[in-house]
Design goal:
alpha/beta; globular
Length: 138
């Protein structure tokens, strides 16, 4: 059986970190699913750190959590190809404000041949025809 490639959105990581949330169990099932090839982008990492530090989580705990994530996820980096895709996607969808950060995640995904994202923020990605949202998140 071929493993499915999916990018994990920041909100899934945050729900995985906090076990008292309604999406915790689904996040665990995704992040611990051995039938998936899991990826995160550098943009997800910076968003994760920003949110956790705003919530006054200690750097020691953030770094421990990040080390755990790295055991299950491959990190995707922006490059020239993703930057060109970013420009094209922004031209096509004309995002505003924070939606631009989502377009960077999308461009990095697509430049790596991945078109599925695990996210609970469907509205952030539902209009992007090049993507599909992972079924467990719907």
């Amino acid at each position: 059986m071929t493993k499915k490639d999916i990018v994990i959105d920041t909100n899934v990581l945050l729900y995985y970190f906090k076990d008292n949330t309604k999406y915790y169990k689904v996040s665990v099932s995704i992040l611990e699913n051995e039938n998936l090839n899991l990826f995160i982008t550098t943009k997800n990492i910076s968003e994760l750190f920003a949110v956790l530090t705003k919530q006054k989580i200690s750097w020691a705990n953030i770094l421990l959590f990040f080390n755990d994530i790295q055991k299950n996820c491959t990190i995707l980096y922006p490059d020239k190809r993703s930057l060109n895709l970013f420009k094209n996607i922004c031209t096509k969808y004309e995002p505003q404000g924070n939606k631009i950060f989502d377009m960077e995640i999308v461009s990095i995904m697509l430049s790596n041949g991945i078109n599925t994202i695990a996210t609970f923020n469907h509205k952030d990605f539902k209009e992007i025809s090049e993507l599909q949202i992972f079924n467990e998140c719907l």
